[in-house]
Amino acid sequence: AQSVAQPEDQVNVAEGNPLTVKCTYSVSGNPYLFWYVQYPNRGLQFLLKYITGDNLVKGSYGFEAEFNKSQTSFHLKKPSALVSDSALYFCAVRVSGYSSASKIIFGSGTRLSIRP
Amino acid sequence: EAGVAQSPRYKIIEKRQSVAFWCNPISGHATLYWYQQILGQGPKLLIQFQNNGVVDDSQLPKDRFSAERLKGVDSTLKIQPAKLEDSAVYLCASSLRTSGRSSNEQFFGPGTRLTVL
Question: Which secondary-structure segment (H or E) carries A11?
Answer without folding.
Answer: strand A10-14
